[in-house]
Amino acid sequence: GAVVSQHPSRVICKSGTSVKIECRSLDFQATTMFWYRQFPKQSLMLMATSNEGSKATYEQGVEKDKFLINHASLTLSTLTVTSAHPEDSSFYICSARTASSYNEQFFGPGTRLTVL
Amino acid sequence: TQLLEQSPQFLSIQEGENLTVYCNSSSVFSSLQWYRQEPGEGPVLLVTVVTGGEVKKLKRLTFQFGDARKDSSLHITAAQPGDTGLYLCAGQEYGNKLVFGAGTILRVKS
Fold first, then answer.
1. pLDDT tens-digit profile of B38-59?
2. Is A79 in contact with A68 (CB distance < 8 Å)?
3. Nearest CA-CA partner of A82 in A15, A8, A5, A7
4. Reported confidence tier of residue B1, pLDDT bands at 50, 70, 90
5. Over residues B13-36, mean pLDDT
6. DSSP line for B8-27
7. What is the pLDDT of residue A101?
8. Which residue of A has its CA nearest to B45?
9. pLDDT for residue B12 is more than 90
10. Residue B80 pLDDT more than 70?
11. Are B6 and B102 contacting, i.e. CB atoms less than 8 angstroms apart?
12. Burial of A39 (C-beta count, 10 Å sphere; 0-12/13-18/19+)
């Protein structure tokens, strides 16, 4: 099956620092990956669509200069939270879309970010 | 962006009971996916339904896609404590992103 990994699984940082989260598709190539944010007991909120070799497409209200996305290869996308603040603390999840006819998305295990 | 209404939001039942979760939209989706998520983990894909009227079964779980591809349901028979989790439906916009429902938190008590 399609496996997506994320690293790190948990990160604690001080306010003002930057944090990079990696998302990898392990057994397939993904031209498109997605980054979501999830608050406790809520659904997933799409932040941006990451396209290999081109700029990411951000959802309305998501600051592209704060949440930097790089999709440098067909198996890796990174999300960098710049100058993190406590309100950025959240569960960040990536997904990768397969090339199947259904365009199914498979999700990573998520990264818990805590900004002190 | 299309909207997908999911209900109920919370469900607490006893082991052995049956339950149904609904997802409804006024828009048509090319396909619809159901996920289950446990705390601190990413969503796990349960099933993808594509054809209007399609019914898929996964052990005690039955998934149905509406004839018009605007709605879907998940029915669990004889629920077990291991079914506890957050269930998410997600509709695939044509050629683009997933639209998620608000989620249903299911708790099955033994």
1. 999 999 999 999 999 999 999 9
2. yes
3. A15
4. low
5. 95
6. -SEEEEETT--EEEEEE-SS
7. 64
8. A106
9. yes
10. yes
11. yes
12. exposed
Which helix (H) or strand (E) element contains residue A105?
strand A105-107
Tell me the C-alpha distance between A46 and A43, whole Å: 10
Q: Tell me the C-alpha distance between B91 and B100, whole Å.
A: 7
CB contact under 8 A, A109 and B42: yes
Asked if A34 lies within 8 A of B50 by C-beta distance, the reply is no
Cβ(B32)–Cβ(B89) under 8 Å? yes
> Which residues in chain B have Cβ-Cβ distances shorter than 8 Å to A49?
97
Q: Which residue has the tokens 């299911």?
A: B106
- Measured between CB atoms, which of A41, A103, A110 is closest to B41? A110
pLDDT digits (tens, 9 = 90+) for A54-109: 889 999 999 999 999 999 888 999 999 999 999 999 999 999 988 776 778 899 99
First to last CA, chain B: 40
Interchain CB distance below 8 Å, A103 and B42:
no
SS3 B82: helix
Instruction: Report the b/e string of B73-104 with b at 16+ CB within 10 A.
Output: bbbbeebeeebbbbbbbbbbbeeebbbbbebb
Token digits for A1? Answer: 């099956």
Taking one residue from A and the other from B, the number of pairs with CB-CB distance under 8 angstroms is 54
Bridge partner list, A12: A114
